[in-house]
């Protein structure tokens, strides 16, 4: 399934570190594997209790459609009926908003995604991208 | 319910072939019977893992309402409340976007639908239509 | 995600062939990848329309828990409350009955699962196992 | 809600360490807060993809009822109708099986729970208990 716990841990830590460096609000960070299943998650102190679902929804959306959640967000803005039907087709588990960033390995294959929530969607995505890159992988935001 | 596995297989293969001839992104193709139930499905290498739900939603929508999913998409754009209620009434299994193409037999009876996803919706529909026609059946996109 | 469409097709065909060789009732066969997502599916003529869900539930259960669905069935018999909670925790998508067979590659890694339904559960599993083996992979039933 | 990310991390690591010391199969470990919401999660390499749901269900059950999940398991065995209704009342998120261990602070207040899955339920619970204790907190298994 392509992403080790060791690597996932580094991504989570580097993303949280990026959040602190950027002076963002408390973040929650998930790493899902290439099948959209949770590998690791951490929620910073001060983050609200529902942040797991949001982080998961962003990362899950990215992996299931093979594009970053920001792009899915644009599709949902341009075609609201498509956004609504995606939510429904995936049992409400898709969050079509920036912050779900694809993780690719050196061959360019998708090995999972990071999902970040807590600050503005664009800041969430920036922190996620920084986290993936500092872990030595390619991120697609 | 009117569509044999043998015929469904031909449709899947011809649709995938059409995708390759048109140089489209990796496609996922479903054939559902006249009751909207899965008869055959194939997902090409490189397609994201959530493509089954999208292909199914397009084909299911077409069969359940008896019109191609592109027409349902137009209805959802013109009357968003109707699109939303379709999602709810069909337990989230309807994707009102082009790519769900009705299959008719020689008598003009609907025997099922093909659902395609992977490229733009219009290209998905074009590949589906080509697949149905090359299988010697009539498609309504 | 470890299983190509080409390989999945071979497994489906070999499993259906095994069913015919064993003189079983019409079968439905799914191949899911290592994340539990549909790669290929075929339903033989004469099979009832709800067979997709059953085939999927067997294969999905095997992949999500990393053991063949027959073993999950035994757990559900010994501890019914655990079987019930599995159904619920996985949104009703788990079928804890024989016929969901793990697929391993040469390194022994799980690359997906086959799910078969149509005859007795034990026959379903036997056909699945034969299909995986004839495709040159290791099956765990 | 009483459990810091720093503390949650220590519990996750100590629990995984306990699993390795006890030579258990790959474990998945969740820490939820006093409201049952995910604080941290890690899934070891080799663990099957559905382990998040199971770990969560054990920890969630413990916190929501204020007793370890092993006790809820006993209740479900003695009164199956109660077990079934718990599943329903909590939207399928309750796994009434050993491995969901309450975490108490020095005042004896419940601050969260650990959920562990991967080996036998009893071993899962033993690893969770060890993890909580080595983090300097009181566990109730």
UniProtKB/TrEMBL annotation, chains A, B, C, D:
SUPFAM superfamilies per record: GlcG-like
Matches recorded under InterPro entries: GlcG_carb_metab_protein, PduO/GlcC-like, PduO/GlcC-like_sf
Gene3D superfamilies reported in the protein's UniProt record: Haem-degrading domain
The organism's place on the tree of life at top rank: Bacteria
PANTHER family (UniProt xref): SLR1406 PROTEIN
Protein name as annotated: Uncharacterized protein GlcG (DUF336 family)
Species this protein is from: Shimia abyssi
